[in-house]
Amino acid sequence: MQSLIALFAGLLFGLGLTVSGMIDPAKVQGFLDVTGRWDPRLAFVLGGAVLTSWIGFQILFEAKRPVLADSFTWPTARQLDRPLVIGAILFGAGWGLFGYCPGPALAALSLGHPQTIIFVIAILAGMAAHRLTPVKRPPGSSRQNA
Amino acid sequence: MSYLSDGLPVMEIAGGIMIGLAAVLLMGFNGRIMGVSGIAGGLMTPKRNDWAWRLMFIAGLAAAPVAVTLFGGSLPPVRMTGGAGIAAAAGLLVGYGTRLGSGCTSGHGVCGLARLSPRSLAAVIIFMVAGALVASLVHPLLGEV
């Protein structure tokens, strides 16, 4: 049952990314490139998504438990630490370079652009590389925020 | 501003609401944060009973454009901005960076901001600025491929 919800949530998320144009790398770069002919339209995607989930989360904060699971796994990390800063810089650089973040890239796989397939494989390689790198973490800054 | 001449950003707002609803759905039913890099990254260290929902979420995500076409909708233009080399380099940065920084546009951007998390707000500002810097440098050079 949880898998079914996950499938539906993934589909709904992907539909949102598709109709909003987040699956178009040129549009994303046009949004990020504030020095050129800046296209601010994609800010409405983030704005709409944040506002909608903010409202929904307010309701969930009052709930005892999720419908299908024992507890909510809200992220617990609080500190602004070095891994967060460096990770966000590296991620942002990659996002600006090609115009895809992980969600839209996965959603666009079926469109069959070779670059998208290469990009997704490289994401997995980058994630594997991170797993193989021994990083000392202060307590409380575990990878729970993703 | 170019968006005024292109009309109101109706599809952008509609898409954003769908993304937000998906995040609420995943938390409300499964108790999980909708962060794509976290969901995908969790498959690298699969725990018992904790991989099926991840695969299903990604399957749903990947099926979305197919579903749009199937129901007679039209897809927006999808224009590549770089070749294989750029894609590979960018993917490595995104994969490593999102794991090190504990999240991407969905986990920090959508869910983190909706939770009013200062840590996520910092991450969003940093990756937006980094993205803007790099895109401003490469966008005029590469354009569309």
Automatic annotation (TrEMBL), chain A:
Source organism of the structure: Pacificimonas pallii
Spans traversing the lipid bilayer: 44-63, 84-109, 115-133
A Pfam cross-reference name: DUF6691
Alphabetically ordered keywords of this record: Membrane, Transmembrane, Transmembrane helix
Record InterPro entries: DUF6691
Protein name per the record: YeeE/YedE family protein
Lineage start: Bacteria, Pseudomonadati, Pseudomonadota, Alphaproteobacteria, Sphingomonadales
From TrEMBL, chain B:
Domain of life of the source: Bacteria
Regions crossing the membrane: 13-30, 51-72, 78-100, 121-142
Main location: membrane
Entries under InterPro entries matching the protein: Sulf_transp_TsuA/YedE
Membrane-related topology note: Multi-pass membrane protein
Subcellular location: Cell inner membrane
Keyword field: Cell inner membrane, Cell membrane, Membrane, Transmembrane, Transmembrane helix, Transport
Protein family membership: Belongs to the TsuA/YedE (TC 9.B.102) family.
UniProt protein name: YeeE/YedE family protein
Species this chain originates from: Pacificimonas pallii
